[in-house]
Design goal:
The chain has a domain of 69 residues. The chain contains 2 helices and no strands. The radius of gyration is 33 Å and the shape is rod-shaped.
C-alpha cells in the first residue's frame, strides 16, 4: 500500500499521504519539516511510479498473451491446411499408381 491508496483503485481517486499532509497544513511548518516532506514526496512519487510501471507491464504482458493466442490459432489453421494437403497428395499418388497399374 506504500504511501497511497491501493493500486486497484482508479488514479482519479488515489490520494497520497503527501496530499493529505499538505491539506492539513504540515507544509507550512519549520524548515526541517519541509525537508522531511520533500523527502516524503520523493519517496511517494517513486513508489507511485513503480506502481504505474507495474500496471504497464501487466498490460504489456496481457497484450503479448493475446498475440500469442492469436498466433497459436493461426498455427493450428496452418497445420489443418497442411494435413488436408498431405491427404490430397496421398490420394493423388494412389490414383496415379492405379492408372500406371492398369496401363502396365
Amino acid at each position: 500500500m506504500f504511501l497511497s491508496v491501493s493500486a486497484s483503485k482508479p488514479k482519479s481517486i488515489k490520494w497520497s499521504l503527501v496530499s493529505k499532509l499538505v491539506h492539513k497544513g504540515v507544509v507550512g511548518g519549520s524548515e526541517g519539516q519541509r525537508e522531511k516532506l520533500t523527502e516524503l514526496e520523493k519517496v511517494d512519487t517513486a513508489l507511485n511510479n513503480l506502481l504505474d510501471q507495474h500496471e504497464e507491464e501487466v498490460e504489456s504482458f496481457e497484450f503479448g498473451q493475446r498475440n500469442l493466442e492469436n498466433l497459436k490459432g493461426s498455427i493450428e489453421d496452418l497445420e489443418n491446411g497442411l494435413e488436408m494437403l498431405f491427404k490430397l497428395l496421398i490420394r493423388t499418388r494412389l490414383s496415379l499408381l492405379n492408372i500406371l497399374f492398369l496401363i502396365g
